[in-house]
Design a protein that fits this description.
The complex is a heterodimer. In chain A, strands 11-1-13-12 form a four-stranded mixed β-sheet, with helices on one face. Chain A has a three-stranded antiparallel β-sheet with strand order 3-2-6, with no helix packed on it. By secondary structure, chain A is an alpha+beta fold. Chain A contains eight helices and 13 strands. Chain B has seven helices and two strands; from the N terminus they run αβαβααααα. Among the domains of chain B are: about 50 residues; about 50 residues, no CATH class. By secondary structure, chain B is mostly helical. Classes of the chains: A alpha+beta, B mainly alpha. Chains A and B meet through α3, β6, β7, α6 and α7 of A and α2, β2, α3 and α6 of B.
């Protein structure tokens, strides 16, 4: 073969191979719509209006049968206190199940409680947290048995009968949203109250919040007022750098919040 | 090639074939993956129904509407102010889930503990959060040892109405 022929053939072969098979197919709009269902759930949290009452945690534990005395929760509220002498204190006593009824910050079992002078408080705020139901969830990716998965409407769920309790997903989640259920002994986490939202009800936590700090919406419905806030307002997500594309959006996020 | 090279290879191939065969029989037909593909959503499709059918517990009537709804039967007993102050707190937050009430449960929880009120009324000097809007008291000084509701009406906490 001549060099010229060789180059020519190679170019033809590459060009031919790079036409994707799908480009030769006719696209059926019906099929595209079926593959892109018009529901995709997203969450909006406003850290400005949260007062840390913890009613969301109470409602979540009650609605989803997570024992109160177990130190695990599907959702929790964190308190951030920044002092004027440039220290930060973060706590979430019992996941804020009973709110923050003490101005002392819980530093953990060995360090006790930290009393902060009111004059010394620079900024302080509360951040509710829950499963972010990521677009590219690291947790479902690592499951060796297909027990945790993403539904077409964007919810990450766990199949309790298939979970073997290996704990890979607990380690993979960058947000610490997963834990072992003390009764079922399998991994558990927030489901966005799948049994409620699929019946057109608000999740237990959204329903419980007196201050409207938690909101839910269908992000594919651009006429939804909450979707409009997510699309138009300055919202952020936690740990963007992990690339999991979280679907819980925050108003008033600070870099210190992770 | 020598058989000591081939033999382990046969063993590996046999194991893989065995695993695939086992998988073929063990994994139910209901397994599949949706829009997110094999990587993110290979699962038992029936499990979605399991989650959809979890029992409901809380009412969802919207905050103000819940006050009206509960007020239908309790309006004469409790003086409920819907327009301001505690009007924003859903009744179920303090009284527990009430989906089938008054059939089941017949009575709801009436929690008179100070802790219920202290969730919001503990004095926290956080001027940068919404907490600044709620009047705070120091739980260790404000009428210790007495239930808040001995003096304050939880449904109408207005100080002038005390």
């Amino acid at each position: 073969m001549k060099r010229r022929d060789f180059l020519k053939n190679t170019i033809v072969a590459i060009a031919g191979a790079s036409v994707p098979l799908s480009a030769l197919e006719f696209i059926d709009p019906q099929e595209v719509l079926a593959a892109n269902p018009d529901i995709h759930w997203a969450f909006l949290i406003n850290t400005h209006t949260c007062v840390g009452c913890g009613f969301c945690v109470k409602a979540c534990k009650t609605e989803n049968d997570i024992p109160f005395e177990a130190n695990v929760s599907r959702t929790w509220v964190e308190r951030y206190v920044f002092t004027k002498d440039d220290r930060r204190y973060i706590d979430s006593p019992k996941a804020a199940l009973y709110g923050f009824t003490d101005s002392k910050v819980d530093l953990g079992e060995h360090l006790g409680f930290k009393d902060i002078e009111p004059e010394n408080v620079g900024k302080a705020f509360f951040v509710p947290k829950l499963c972010n139901h990521c677009e590219a969830p690291a947790c479902t990716q690592v499951c060796p048995v297909g027990a945790t998965y993403k539904t077409d409407d964007g919810i990450v769920l766990i199949d309790r009968s298939w979970c073997i309790g290996c704990g890979y997903c607990v380690m993979a989640c960058p947000f610490g949203a997963r834990f072992f259920h003390p009764v079922h002994n399998v991994v558990d986490k927030c489901t966005f109250c799948y049994h409620r939202i699929t019946k057109d009800l608000e999740t237990a936590c959204v329903n419980a919040c007196p201050f409207g700090a938690r909101k839910m919406c269908n992000i594919r419905d651009i006429n939804d007022p909450i979707t409009k806030i997510i699309l138009n307002d300055r919202v952020g997500v936690l740990k963007d750098e992990f690339g999991t594309k979280p679907q819980a959006f925050y108003i008033g996020l600070a870099t210190e919040v992770r | 090639m020598k058989s000591h090279v081939w033999r382990p290879l046969y063993v590996v191939i046999a194991i893989i074939a065995g695993l695939l065969l086992f998988r073929e029989f063990y994994v139910p037909d209901t397994f599949g993956s949706g829009e997110y593909g094999f990587m993110y959503s290979y699962h038992n499709l029936e499990n979605q129904e399991v989650w959809k059918n979890q029992p409901l517990k809380y009412q969802d009537t919207g905050k103000q509407k819940m006050h009206e709804y509960c007020g239908e039967c309790h309006g004469d007993v409790v003086d409920i102010r819907t327009e301001d102050l505690h009007g924003i707190i859903p009744c179920e937050n303090c009284h527990g889930p009430a989906l089938e009430h008054p059939d089941e449960p017949e009575l709801l929880v009436v929690n008179r503990e100070r802790g219920v009120c202290l969730r919001c009324h503990t004095l926290l000097p956080y001027t940068t959060s919404e907490r600044k809007r709620i009047p705070g008291i120091n739980p260790n000084e404000h009428n210790v040892d007495e239930a808040c509701v001995d003096c304050h009406d939880p449904h109408n906490p207005r100080l002038e109405d005390m």
